[in-house]
């Protein structure tokens, strides 16, 4: 780690996911710009980070299943479906808004 | 990644990738396409007529909120001439329904629609909290499901409304098709595929205008339109079997997004192969099927839910022909083999369910032929002497609720349940 530089992010949880994150919809985070190996952090890294550092709920499988965001949870990066942005490999930019929406809850 | 332009307008940045065809769309075009498709579903199935009063079954959740929003938009845009009313059921679950009803109340203001709330307590004398207190969490979904279906119809009747629309989406339909497939319930599988139940002659029709809409797109529509909806899980036990079917659907979608609509289409095609004798549903091409789901228990009893078919007077003529002239269609051959030999003369196509001759031998497993009547207790639509809601209530009131009700039957409960219920009805009668 050659730098302690951090980047600001807004991470939001809706559609019932806020339940897993202290019932808080909007989280303002400062995350390291680089991961342990010195690579720029990605959304994939962020998901892992959220699971390990931010989520207090023990039911991790409701958010991440087999190392991937659970099927049925949509991820929007600055309002765009993350499938348009390279999914987990998307490199986070300062002030990005990353929204996780569950589609799994009652209609 | 470089921004991708919208496939339709070619100018704005694409934000949505459609599950059914991978089309990349901007927000504005997505909203337009989504609404246009619902409009197409509505018009191609002749779901509404001008002047209809429609109750929207509103839970405050994403599906019914999107349904209310889209129907309001389309009603104004295309002059459907509908009078829309929100109808909500208060199951009496503290910390769940009371919160979501607040959302519905806001929706009523936002969409300028009247709102009617009917409670389990007033209808049945029991709230779900009290039911759970009595029977425990296991199996309570069955009670809730049976009560809710009747409550929606009763609410509609109180309003003098004959058509209730619900927010069931393509994922829900696919899930139900899979569940019925997995438990070998072909009759219910067939019924669950249709977009509408009942016709002008029934007390209350039911339909699912979002039947072909992906849950993902419903959530994205709600997000991009900034709709006010409520999300929380029911605090009582989620239904395990449906949950598994749901996970399966979501996993399939991940690998092959078109899978959901493919399952829906497959269900519709299978439904056509199920003889009317089994489903109690005529395979009509006009979407107005006259059989009823007894007790309203099926989310969609009815005929074919296939889009884009013709409807109208020609079908009536065809029905007449077919009544004289059976086993007309090639696709019935395989099915015929399954039937007992004295079932010649049965028609698989477009027969008015009410016109069926009684006393014909049942096909396959012993299935109760559904015949619409009224419950001798509550006077509400039922295929049995005493409807399921009354049967369940009786058990509750006698404080002996352990009636061996299958877990895993909530939305469309199985024929097994129906048979058991019949048994119980007889026993107590």
UniProtKB/TrEMBL annotation, chain A:
Its localization reads: Cytoplasm
UniProt-listed Pfam families: Urm1 (PF09138)
- GO BP terms: protein urmylation; tRNA thio-modification; tRNA wobble uridine modification
Q: Does the keyword Cytoplasm apply?
A: yes
The superkingdom of the source organism is Eukaryota
Q: Quote the PTM field.
A: C-terminal thiocarboxylation occurs in 2 steps, it is first acyl-adenylated (-COAMP) via the hesA/moeB/thiF part of UBA4, then thiocarboxylated (-COSH) via the rhodanese domain of UBA4.
Q: Mind telling me which CDD domains this protein's record contains?
A: Ubl_Urm1
| HAMAP family recorded | Urm1 (MF_03048)
What does the sequence similarity comment in the record state about its family? Belongs to the URM1 family.
Function, please?
Answer: Acts as a sulfur carrier required for 2-thiolation of mcm(5)S(2)U at tRNA wobble positions of cytosolic tRNA(Lys), tRNA(Glu) and tRNA(Gln). Serves as sulfur donor in tRNA 2-thiolation reaction by being thiocarboxylated (-COSH) at its C-terminus by the MOCS3 homolog UBA4. The sulfur is then transferred to tRNA to form 2-thiolation of mcm(5)S(2)U. Prior mcm(5) tRNA modification by the elongator complex is required for 2-thiolation. Also acts as a ubiquitin-like protein (UBL) that is covalently conjugated via an isopeptide bond to lysine residues of target proteins such as AHP1.
- Name of the protein in question: Ubiquitin-related modifier 1
Organism name? Hyphodiscus hymeniophilus
Which gene is transcribed and translated to give this protein?
Answer: URM1
TrEMBL record, chain B:
This protein's record includes keyword Electron transport: no
**What is the name of the protein in this document?**
Cytoplasmic tRNA 2-thiolation protein 1
Q: What is its EC number?
A: 2.7.7.-
Q: Which organism is it from?
A: Hyphodiscus hymeniophilus
Q: What is a single Pfam family found in this protein's UniProt entry?
A: ATP_bind_3
Q: Where in the cell is it found?
A: Cytoplasm
Q: Which UniProt keywords apply?
A: Cytoplasm, Nucleotidyltransferase, RNA-binding, Transferase, tRNA processing, tRNA-binding
Give the highest taxon in the source lineage: Eukaryota
Is the keyword RNA-binding assigned to this protein? yes
Q: What does this protein do?
A: Plays a central role in 2-thiolation of mcm(5)S(2)U at tRNA wobble positions of tRNA(Lys), tRNA(Glu) and tRNA(Gln). Directly binds tRNAs and probably acts by catalyzing adenylation of tRNAs, an intermediate required for 2-thiolation. It is unclear whether it acts as a sulfurtransferase that transfers sulfur from thiocarboxylated URM1 onto the uridine of tRNAs at wobble position. Prior mcm(5) tRNA modification by the elongator complex is required for 2-thiolation. May also be involved in protein urmylation.
| Upper taxonomic lineage | Eukaryota, Fungi, Dikarya, Ascomycota, Pezizomycotina
Q: Which PROSITE patterns match?
A: UPF0021
Question: If you read the UniProt record, what top EC class would you report for this enzyme, in one word?
Answer: transferase
The molecular function GO annotations come to: nucleotidyltransferase activity; tRNA binding
Q: In which pathway does it act?
A: tRNA modification; 5-methoxycarbonylmethyl-2-thiouridine-tRNA biosynthesis
